[in-house]
Amino acid sequence: MFTAIRKIVTAGSAVALLAGVSTIAQAADELVISSATPPQHIQTLTMASFAKALTERSGGALKAKVFDSSQLYNARDVGKAVARGDVGMATVPSPYLSRVEANINVLDLPVLKGMTADQRSAMLDGEVGDILNEKLSAKMGVVVPGNWPVLGRVYYWSTSKPLTNFDEFVGLQIRIPGGAGPAAVVEGMGGVPVVMPGSDMPLALQQGTVDGTMASIESVVQQKLTDVGIRYGFWDQGIVGFLIPVVSQNYWNSLTADEQALFTEVWNEIVAEQREANKAVDAEMRATLKDWGVTISDADMDAARAMREQMMPQQEAVIAKYKLDAALVELATQAAAQ
């Protein structure tokens, strides 16, 4: 499905897939979906696939439109917009929402380093995800309608310094989207974390305000960050990013119980497809970046394990500072050990 939709949106934005849009004002029964990424990014494709499927499966009763490329809100602010009811739905990178619900930081703790995307998905589809969804919903007043799409491996990218091992991070200023977990990881490697929204990151790289950035490989390709100097990439065997789906409470309450059930059913089916599609993205984008002159290195597994142990003091400091739920940390630790 994602391949077909990617071909469709080549000729225009993801919004065109669903209908022309000239105003944000929508009919009361129409779901407004905000995406911060470009039309062909898997995050936007996921929302476009869901909107199309929801309309079809509901027999046209539930309509939706997607606004891509931060037309409405950027990734940092869209969660608040959903909570206010200004937007009906969005998927938000987990670090942005960790500012609202601190326990989301558990997903980026060093102890999870080495877990695959499938292992993390299984963890989030179980008790860990249930707890986080409940806490986030209570804190924000939103609905988490189902499973979380995977954003993929979170790499480190630099403009001038080759990144081939952990020692090369010492002293580098690395842009992160936020979150205590990512900050602890960068500090554990000897770098300096700089919190910055993705929309500000290209200019910061170009001007040398930061030496590098955390980002998924697809974001580097879709945003053409090679144009602002990205030349090196490094996979530390660490964080695999996820997107948290959030829906406005007002919109959710406007649905019948059957419509809510259908919404969740369709969403989870799309997420299952998205997770499989994402597996091919990494290799595909690596090949693209190689053609563009970017050198990507992978951390040696033994070195990654040693670094994980080295980061335990930072992890304990995050757990203490943000008062992470001890039971939740234990569940995540058990999942990492399997």
Give a short synopsis of this structure.
The chain is an alpha/beta fold. Helix content is 46%, strand content 17%.
What average pLDDT do the residues reach?
90
Oligomer: single chain
Structural class: alpha/beta
What share of residues is helical?
A: 40-55%
Question: What is the approximate shape?
Answer: globular
The CATH homologous superfamily name of the largest domain equals Bacterial extracellular solute-binding protein, family 7
Count of helical segments? 15
**Estimated radius of gyration:** 19 Å
How would you characterize the overall build of this protein?
The protein is an alpha/beta fold and 338 residues long. It has 2 domains: 2-101 and 115-151 and 243-285, 3-Layer(aba) Sandwich (D-Maltodextrin-Binding Protein, domain 2); 152-239 and 294-337, D-Maltodextrin-Binding Protein, domain 2 (3-Layer(aba) Sandwich), CATH 3.40.190.170. 46% of the residues lie in helices and 17% in strands. The protein contains 15 helices and 11 strands. It has helices at residues 2-9, 15-18, 42-57, 78-84, 94-97, 117-124, 127-140, 180-188, 201-207, 217-222, 249-253, 257-291, 301-310, 312-321, 326-337; strands at residues 30-34, 63-67, 89-93, 142-143, 150-158, 173-176, 192-195, 212-216, 232-235, 240-248, 295-298. Strands 1, 2, 3, 4, 5, 6, 7, 8, 9, 10 and 11 form an 11-stranded mixed beta sheet that branches. Helix 8 (180-188) links the parallel strand 6 (173-176) and strand 7 (192-195). Helix 3 (42-57) runs antiparallel to helix 12. The protein is globular.
